[in-house]
From TrEMBL:
Span of the signal peptide: none
Lineage: Eukaryota, Metazoa, Ecdysozoa, Arthropoda, Hexapoda
Transmembrane segments: 382-403
Protein name: Sodium channel protein Nach
Gene Ontology cellular-component annotations: plasma membrane
Species this chain originates from: Acanthoscelides obtectus
Subcellular location: Membrane
Annotated InterPro entries: ENaC
Family: Belongs to the amiloride-sensitive sodium channel (TC 1.A.6) family.
Length: 427
C-alpha cells in the first residue's frame, strides 16, 4: 500500500509539473474594445534614389579633391551612388572598385549620410498637438526614414555605434477606439519618390520585406489597415520564454542588442551568417559589434547573398514569437491622380490610417506556480497524508537527530580522554 501510494503521488506530481513547465498559458479573447487605445501603424520610407547630386559633389570634393570638370569625377560619383543604394541584392556592382586602394578607407556610414537628400515634405497626423517627424535610419534596405517605431533610436545614424534606448511608449502615437480619424499623411518632394512599408511599432524594416507601396508624381495614395493584436498579461513575465512560448521586447537573445523582436532576431541571424562566411559585417549593421566590411568584404558577401537573404527559417534561424504581437492587414488602396495643374500635381501624398479592431487576444496564465503548489500539496496529502507541517517536522527531526548524534560522539570522546589526563597529572 505504501509503494502504491508513493507511486501514485509521484505520477500525478510529475504530470502537473510537466504541465507547468510545458504549457502554463492560455490565449483568451477580449471584447471591451470601446476602452482601447490602439497604436497607429509605424511607417518606413526609402527613396528610390538615395543620393543628392549637389551633396555628392561636395562629398567627392572633400574626400578626393575632385571637381565635376575632372575626368575622374564620374568614376567617384558612380562609387558614391553605388554605396548609397547598397543592399544585399546589389553588392556585386562594387566589383569594378575592388582594386582601388583610394577607396579602401572610406567610411561608408558617413558617405551615405552626407549624400542623402534633405527631406522637404510635410508629415502630419490626426493629433494636431503631436510634433510628427521622421528619423533617419540605416537598415538592410539602405538609408531610410521611419516614423512611430519604438526601435528607431537603435537604427538611427546620428549616434552610429551607440546602442540608444528604445523610443518611450509615450512617444508612440495611439488613438482611442472612438476616434475614427486615426491617420498619418506625408506630402513628399516630387523629385524624390519613396517606397513605403507599414509595420508594427515593435518591428523594423528588413531585407525580406515583400510588400511596399509606391506613390508617384501627382499621386495621392490612401490605405487603411485592419489591426490584429495579441498582448500579454504582466503575470506571465515570471515564466521562462520556453514556458510561455514568446519573448517580451526587453528580453534580448544576446548581449549584442538590448531588445527583442522577430525582425530584430532575423537581422541578428543574417549578421551572424555574414561574420561566419566573410569575417565582417556590412556597414548597414552599424549598431552591431564586429569588423565592418571593406569593398572586398562586401564582394565576399555578394557571393553568399542568396543564402543570407533566404527566409530565416530555411537557414535554421529560430525566432520566438513576441509576447506583444501586432499585425496590420492592408485594405484596398485608394488612388487619386491630380493632373489639372496647380499645387496638387506638384506633390506626392501617401496617407495611411487605422481601422480599429473589435477583438483582441490576450496571453494569460492558465496554470501558474501557485496552482502547481496547490496541486502538489493536494496530491501528496491525498496519497501520503503529508502536509507542509509534516515536511517541516520530518526535517526538524532529522536535523535534531544529527545534532544529538554529534553531541553524543563528542561527549564520549571527552569521557575517554579525562582519566588519561588525570593519571598524567598524578605522575
Amino acid at each position: 500500500m505504501v509503494i502504491a501510494a508513493v507511486s501514485g503521488s509521484l505520477s500525478l506530481a510529475l504530470t502537473n509539473l510537466n504541465r507547468f513547465l510545458a504549457n502554463p498559458t492560455v490565449v483568451s479573447i477580449q471584447k471591451d474594445f470601446r476602452n482601447w487605445m490602439n497604436h497607429l501603424p509605424a511607417a518606413t520610407g526609402c527613396l528610390n534614389e538615395k543620393i543628392s547630386y549637389e551633396k555628392a559633389k561636395k562629398y567627392i570634393k572633400s574626400e578626393w579633391n575632385v571637381e565635376p570638370t575632372d575626368e575622374q569625377f564620374s568614376y567617384f560619383y558612380d562609387f558614391v551612388k553605388t554605396i548609397s543604394n547598397t543592399t544585399y541584392f546589389n553588392l556585386g556592382e562594387l566589383k569594378r572598385f575592388e582594386d582601388d586602394k583610394t577607396l579602401a578607407a572610406v567610411d561608408m556610414v558617413k558617405l551615405v549620410t552626407e549624400v542623402h537628400p534633405d527631406l522637404s515634405g510635410q508629415l502630419v497626423t490626426f493629433e494636431k498637438r503631436y510634433k510628427a517627424k521622421w528619423k533617419l535610419i540605416l537598415t538592410e534596405l539602405g538609408i531610410c526614414i521611419t516614423f512611430n517605431s519604438k526601435f528607431a533610436n537603435l537604427l538611427e545614424i546620428r549616434n552610429a555605434g551607440v546602442l540608444n534606448n528604445s523610443e518611450p511608449e509615450d512617444n508612440i502615437l495611439k488613438c482611442h477606439y472612438l476616434n475614427r480619424l486615426c491617420y498619418a499623411r506625408y506630402d513628399s518632394d516630387p523629385n524624390y519618390p519613396l517606397k513605403y512599408h507599414i509595420h508594427s511599432y515593435l518591428d523594423i524594416a528588413h531585407i525580406n520585406l515583400n510588400q511596399f507601396h509606391q506613390a508617384n508624381i501627382s499621386d495621392e495614395v490612401e490605405i487603411n489597415y485592419k489591426m490584429t493584436e495579441t498582448d500579454a498579461s504582466p503575470d506571465i513575465r515570471y515564466l521562462s520564454p520556453t514556458q510561455r512560448r514568446c519573448r517580451f521586447d526587453n528580453e534580448p537573445l544576446t548581449n549584442n542588442l538590448p531588445y527583442y523582436s522577430t525582425t530584430i532576431c532575423f537581422v541578428m541571424c543574417r549578421y551572424e551568417m555574414a561574420l561566419k562566411l566573410c569575417g565582417c559585417k556590412p556597414f548597414f549593421y552599424h549598431f552591431l559589434d564586429g569588423k565592418t566590411c571593406d569593398i572586398r568584404g562586401l564582394l565576399c558577401l555578394s557571393g553568399h547573398a542568396d543564402i543570407i537573404t533566404q527566409s530565416p527559417l530555411r537557414v535554421g534561424c529560430k525566432c520566438a514569437q513576441p509576447c506583444n504581437l501586432i499585425s496590420y492587414l492592408p485594405q484596398i488602396p485608394k488612388f487619386t491622380r491630380w493632373n489639372k495643374g496647380g499645387f496638387l500635381d506638384q506633390r506626392i501624398t501617401f496617407r495611411w490610417g487605422l481601422i480599429h479592431p473589435t477583438t483582441r487576444y490576450r496571453r494569460d496564465i492558465l496554470f501558474g506556480f501557485g496552482d502547481l503548489v496547490v496541486s502538489l500539496g493536494g496530491t501528496f496529502n491525498l496519497f501520503l497524508g503529508i502536509s507542509f507541517i509534516t515536511v517541516y517536522e520530518i526535517a526538524y527531526i532529522i536535523i535534531e537527530g544529527v545534532f544529538r548524534a554529534k553531541n553524543s560522539e563528542r561527549r564520549s570522546k571527552i569521557i575517554k580522554v579525562v582519566p588519561i589526563t588525570e593519571e598524567i597529572t598524578h605522575l
